[in-house]
Write a structure and sequence with these properties.
The structure is a homotetramer of 259-residue chains. Chain A is α+β, with helices and mostly antiparallel strands. Chain A is 38% helix and 16% strand. Chain A contains eight helices and seven strands, in the order E-E-H-H-E-H-E-E-E-H-H-E-H-H-H. The first copy, chain A, has a five-stranded antiparallel β-sheet. The first copy, chain A, has a two-stranded antiparallel sheet with strand order 5-6.
Amino acid sequence: MSNPIPEDADQRLADPNSLARRENILGDEHSWLELQDMLPHPASGVTADSAIVSAARTSFLGHSKGADQDKRLLLYLLKHRHTTPFEQVEFKFRVRAPVVVWWQWVRHRTWSYNLQSGRYTPFNEDEFYIPKTWRQQSPTNKQGSEGLVSSEVSKELHRRLTDIAHDSFALYTQALEMGVAKEQARLVLPAWTSYYVAVCKVDAWNLMHFLRLRLATEAQWEIRQYAEAILDIFREVMPWTSEAFDRYLNPQTSDSPLA
Amino acid sequence: MSNPIPEDADQRLADPNSLARRENILGDEHSWLELQDMLPHPASGVTADSAIVSAARTSFLGHSKGADQDKRLLLYLLKHRHTTPFEQVEFKFRVRAPVVVWWQWVRHRTWSYNLQSGRYTPFNEDEFYIPKTWRQQSPTNKQGSEGLVSSEVSKELHRRLTDIAHDSFALYTQALEMGVAKEQARLVLPAWTSYYVAVCKVDAWNLMHFLRLRLATEAQWEIRQYAEAILDIFREVMPWTSEAFDRYLNPQTSDSPLA
Amino acid sequence: MSNPIPEDADQRLADPNSLARRENILGDEHSWLELQDMLPHPASGVTADSAIVSAARTSFLGHSKGADQDKRLLLYLLKHRHTTPFEQVEFKFRVRAPVVVWWQWVRHRTWSYNLQSGRYTPFNEDEFYIPKTWRQQSPTNKQGSEGLVSSEVSKELHRRLTDIAHDSFALYTQALEMGVAKEQARLVLPAWTSYYVAVCKVDAWNLMHFLRLRLATEAQWEIRQYAEAILDIFREVMPWTSEAFDRYLNPQTSDSPLA
Amino acid sequence: MSNPIPEDADQRLADPNSLARRENILGDEHSWLELQDMLPHPASGVTADSAIVSAARTSFLGHSKGADQDKRLLLYLLKHRHTTPFEQVEFKFRVRAPVVVWWQWVRHRTWSYNLQSGRYTPFNEDEFYIPKTWRQQSPTNKQGSEGLVSSEVSKELHRRLTDIAHDSFALYTQALEMGVAKEQARLVLPAWTSYYVAVCKVDAWNLMHFLRLRLATEAQWEIRQYAEAILDIFREVMPWTSEAFDRYLNPQTSDSPLA
């Protein structure tokens, strides 16, 4: 198969069909997230909230009794963890995030992923996440952070990681020029900071499970920013379900023991 | 959005929003199947075939080079079992089938199901699958059938199963009147023949896996009729992918060792 | 392939290698359940509880600090829903249950199942679940039961279901003799009451999820009896984990909102 | 049971209970793999091959007719993709591999993983994969490699990656000393080369699916070495199943179109 990539291709640009988009998620222009599509689609004339109620009513071959009753049923379903109707709604995102975020994200095995390939696509120099502020090790949570280090230290680390990224990228480019395979040449790069694009799809129940874990204060700051962006979109497109989420699952607003 | 389900809705009737519907699947009016929704929805302006190509191109950040190249890429993907892009398309069906069919269907664990509850919803007298023709035991395949028994035997069995269904249903009704719980009263019914409605959702890759197994001549005739109805709709809404399926996976048209 | 079933085969007998067995689960000799194997196996010298602690310690490359600390860590893991270590233990059961139970059981999609085939194996006359007591419809829970109907009604229903099973089985036998395929002849049987054997395997986390749902008072009485038998064995082989389950997930002993 | 992990245990050392171990997988002492446990365990008196045959026989309530017939049935099962019995056997590995390998491995969503946490555990200076030989970009496969670059280039790249690892690690250590959280300090490291330990568990069917993809010549060399080590152990513990795999699925020895 000949090379299918046209000269002017750029999947990193906004998709004109997307239903919602959030940018600068990690404070730089490389980090963004789009709701590329969803089931049901707004143009289908069915809302996602009502699709859930309608799926739940299959149990008793029932039908809608109006918005108030429908919403009450939806809240009841989530409160009592009748989760299968929430599987009947799908979210499809296109996301650009550094490997340190994907490393945690892809552990969620109920999502479908199509991920940019570092074996196939060479990296560009600007494709690194270099934080301007650096967080302190939490004294109580061995795997968490709490507060920031001084701005002097932050500046110093930003400068030195910029240097590492620059020098590593120069070596990466040199290795490619010397004929080294992309899959191996990338070893020299600071991979946690490398940005990758992915299309990733999940149903509404497993989206809430993701949010429940990744909105928690114990979650790493970087993936939490993506979770916050998703929550923001979730509230727009599923007002009833996100209200139920806030009430029964969201670690920030409920007292769920799962938080 | 206004209420999408009218007051007098009956979940057994056709959904006006459905994208496709097939009836009389088992030769009676009780057996039907609808494509209730799909991702991407036709109204979204993106075809399901192109959604797959576009997901695959995430690997190399490429974009479309026109229909011919796109279709060629899609055929290549399925031939070489690059299956993840096919997970990015979803089918949501509403189906009415007897338990003998669901019993086999629900073993496919990659689908999401919302099923009518016999604990909640009482059965009606007409909710039974009573075949007019009866199949002979295959002499070579211990779990299959081959050809039909005589029409006299078929008529006799149809008559006697009709009687069983009638008498059992009378006892069921009586038990309910005597206050027995629906969940237990149903024990007296010929359950394999009881019709249940379900909403069930699956991605395009796992749909093809289902079809591959349930279109095979070894599959039981009843579920094969549902698989044929789905294949028919699949061909309408995903012409490229169904062509790839016919070429590389369909046990009826390919020489796949998986057939 | 020639018939691999020897004349004297009977998979319905107890497996001599089984680690535990419970009988008369539904009050008749047909209903039983065995723990056929588990990972880790007792003979391996590693307990299942310690296998979970050890998997959890992979996160920090830690090692055991003695039984007290290990147990405390295990309780902490379940309390805070760190569920992945609980996936590292497996239970493999062999179970004989009627279809009314399997119908609910197989909806748990995280189990692996190998189920007796009614297309392959003819049924025997004694393979039916015919309750001696019948439960009343719950006045408050549309899909539940509460209390029993009078013993007269129970006797009457037992007698009449016995008759249905007997007559249906006679017709089934006749149909087989007339050459009808087993897969279709079974339509005449009262399927909810037909006993099937299955081998089914699940990890400890998903076992607890199953128990959480099927031990609840809302669960149907029949499957609850199997859940109780499993809980009993679970307590024997995983004392720490079952203590954590009772504390944080068991709907009968905890105040989990998921119950 | 007494404590199975001694006080001085180091999770990077060999587990005395392991059933098999392979070392120097990537040519250095950091890369290794153990079969930590399996279901059925050898000490249980049941072989893994026979556990599959026995699970398959549940369909027809049959039992063993001797080794020859059993093996023939097993080959038949895999040839005709009756995959569910192969889910009844489990492999539990403990593996040390660099992130470039895990990045591909964790995309297999049917495995259970417990992975070392870089948020929790600080890295050591020697925990990097620094190849001695470097591969050329394949001229025909955009995501593959073919042959080696000159030994001069290899030496040069080895030296320079060693320097990057050394300097980055020095900065990492400094950042930790300045109080930066481990989760963020690691951004400066060449992550693709960082070694992580994981416990990962999978059933025999999904193991074969993993091998089928990761033994292929298109797979990246690094993960292929782990797949080869697993195949080697697989042949030891499941002689019949691995013979069936070689015949029907292995891309190196069969002409499966899935290869």
